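tool_call: predict_structure(chain=1)
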Amino acid sequence: MLRAIQKGERLKKELKEARKRRRQKRTKSGHNSLTRFKDDPVGFSRFIGVAPTVDQQRFLESVRDNPETNVKAAHGVGKSIGSAVCVLWWVFAVDGLAITTAPTEDQVKQILWSEIRKIYDRNKEKLGGTRGELFVRKSETARAYGFTARNYDTNSFQGKHADRLLLIADEADGISDIIDDGFQSCLTGSSNRGLRIGNPLNKQSSFSKACDRTAITIPAWNHPNVAWAYHLEETIDPSGKIRLIHRLKPSVALQLLDSNGLVKTQDQWPPEFPRDVIPGAISLKWIEEVRQDKGEFSVFWQGRVEGIFPEDVIEGIIPSTWLKAARERYDFNPEYWDRRAIISPWRLGIDVGDGGDSHAVALWRGDVLYEVVLYPTQGDELDTIRIADIVAEKIRKLGGAYYAAVDKTGVGAGTLARLKQQGFLVRGCAFGESAENNHEFSNRKTELFWKLRDGLRLGKIAIAPLGDIEDQVFEDLSSHRYSLSGKGGEDRQIACESKKHVRARLKRSPDAGDSVIIGSSCPNPTFSDGVSEQDVLKEKVKQQQFNPEEVSVKKVRDLFS
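tool_result:
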């Protein structure tokens, strides 16, 4: 009996090893056969179960044929899936080295490499090799990995060379000039390829400059989920120009839109209408919500729906790249900027809402912008009092020296009066007043914007992390245009456009950005100008028992927030 059991176990083991050898043989044969896709990325995509859209086919074939491929893509059109296919094709069919990067760690891990992991795992038996969170590997020369390109790190691409090298800059609009220079310098070999891909948001970015040389544009309208429902109509834009804009076909709009102009859920559609071909990709519902919330001529619409760079940034007073650079300056050395800031008073800017718009409060210290907060209004007669009380409490918590400025135009006058009545050191700020340098600037608003512009341009201003509101603040500040007013010659003044035009473009009021500008109008002395830092912190040191030599703005804010 024992001998029979042992014989059975031996036979099972031999059978298992035979199956393993057959599987390895099939797998090895399959892996070798992938070289047939070396010049056929579209065929490779279908082989691994990804049916590429027409636009994905275009940029996959462009990577095969051209040293440089730049793709301006709308939101949700499959740019990350297409890029993931490109990485796997390069490793398993071309036998090359693929390196991907993006501005932040989350973008690297959760966008492109999330798609790479999912596609690889579905095709592991076909592809072979191994993978980790941010790498796939077939051999020492055929592999891929992802890393974060820190915008201030000039060595991000140093030493990254190979005979068959593919570099992919994902979310390319956020890649700085320094990093893009390194990216370009690696593409020296005849078999090297570079792919930049992202939403086109900033006309002054390195991505935009690359797209000026050559680019593939992927708008929303080409995607199979939505292409069937739209046609082009003539319309008049806010500047009075005739434009062609994609809108729902009348027959489609009649049956798909509810009484509020929003797209019904797909279970309410007529049976003859196509449902989403690619679940989770761009949809009619999303496009029509953006049309209502942001507008057909907004910056958001141009970049994320049309897949084109917004036009208005060209004449913008403050380029968004300068705002991003100010953020990078702070992140690079926060201790340095905190210690610089601690020798200056706090500066608060208060933009008072009128019931339809929110209140906004910006907090500066010295040349560092630390915080911007929006407070919803209720539309009653107590809004101006409520924001005055919020500001008063904030000043008490901050403690020490401060200046505060309130937009005194319209409803802000009530908030200004209440704070003055309570004894706070606060002044009024009116954008429409004459500039101090009225020879050069048409009004106080333009002068303040230009002052902030110069500080950013010269690298004298830093911006601490602003959280979820950061993108809105940057969009508010970078959306203001300027022009030259007057009759010409030396009498011409720089003039910032009116809030009405900015509001029309953004489809909202730029309250967050206005509070930043208002705060920048406050005096900005250092304590060496006559106010002792020790005097300001004396009481806090006494109460909190920390060494004034080790003090930082972050510590002070943490203690009193």
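agent: The first strand starts at residue 68 and ends at 73. Proceeding to next step.
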